[in-house]
TrEMBL record:
UniProt-annotated binding residues for substrate: 115-118, 207, 273
Pfam family, one: FBPase
Reported cofactor(s): Mg(2+)
The EC number(s) this enzyme carries: 3.1.3.11
InterPro entries from the UniProt entry: FBPase_C_dom (IPR044015), FBPase_class-1 (IPR000146), FBPase_N (IPR033391), FBPtase (IPR028343)
Protein's UniProt name: Fructose-1,6-bisphosphatase class 1
Subunit relationships: Homotetramer.
Principal subcellular localization: cytoplasm
Domain Fructose-1-6-bisphosphatase class 1 C-terminal: 197-329
Catalytic EC class: hydrolase
Keywords associated with the record: Carbohydrate metabolism, Cytoplasm, Hydrolase, Magnesium, Metal-binding
Top-rank lineage group of the source organism: Bacteria
Amino acid sequence: MKSISLIQFLIEERRAGRVNAELSLLIEVVARACKRIAVATNKGALGGVLGEAGTGNIQGEAQKKLDVISNEILLEANAWGGQLAACASEEMEDPQPIPDMYPKGNHLLLFDPLDGSSNIDVNISVGTIFSVLRCPDGISEPKAEHFLQPGTTQLAAGYVVYGPATVLVLTFGHGTHEFTLDREVGSFVLSRRDIRIPEETGEFAINVSNQRHWEPPMQRYIGELLAGTDGPRGKDFNMRWVASMVADVHRIITRGGTFFYPLDAKIKSKGGKLRLMYEANPMAFIVEQAGGAATTGRQRILEVQPTGLHQRVPVFLGSKKEIEVATHYHLVADGAQG
Ligand code: AHG
């Protein structure tokens, strides 16, 4: 079979009228930056990239060296191309404007430069997650408020997993597609077109160490899965938890399954663990475009009206039927459904 590079795929999407030239360039630039992050990640201890950076981010989390390096790579790559009006990142409190010496474009880029960074030092998969929005008309210097658009307005979303292979997964709202990095050639090559997540599954991902802090409907749902053939679901379920959302989501879009980071008593005041704008929204877009579902347990993630750049939400995503069951239990507990 003739291989199709990311560049060729983007040209074809442009010809089909699904992507404009500026958005296509933006994705090319992000993909190129992610190749550099892949190289840095791959060098490990030999590249001096492991360990703490000695700084903290806006979330109050200690930054790893690779968090800082990945953020810088993405900012630098995206500054000069003329496709962006501004960037926002997990690692920075405020959006980063495009320097005055460069032309500005019509897009806003949000990213988590290195998701799952607790896994870097132990050589387990990490990744980059990104989301692209349109810059509101007439805004030449976008502020945080201009990024606060619901996930339904995303023009594109993607993630890159730095695992045994480096893999880019991308959607423009016309299906979800996977590209694998050919290291010898140096380009991403289409490896799966129009990925479909099976509607049913026997596999779930959740950090069970938080169980005692979960809300009652979450306790009920996971309790039923754990009861297996002896419980009301009448079948055994298997569990996985990588603690890198990118790796867990990649497993789900490859063989089905579900991922939950629910609300719990420890994180209730924050609204959840994962960030809406650059984790939950892009992953929800990717998963929905592959036939899966993504909710906060109460509402479709993509319909949440954002109130803050670094806002957190509960995340339930993956195989549709299971996400519907878990969401139904929460709505029933709230009295919103019978
Ligand atoms: P970060 O981006 O700060 O590395 O966060 C990782 C996220 C997500 O990737 C993962 O699913 C989750 O946090 C893991 O959380 P726990 O450590 O609480 O299991």
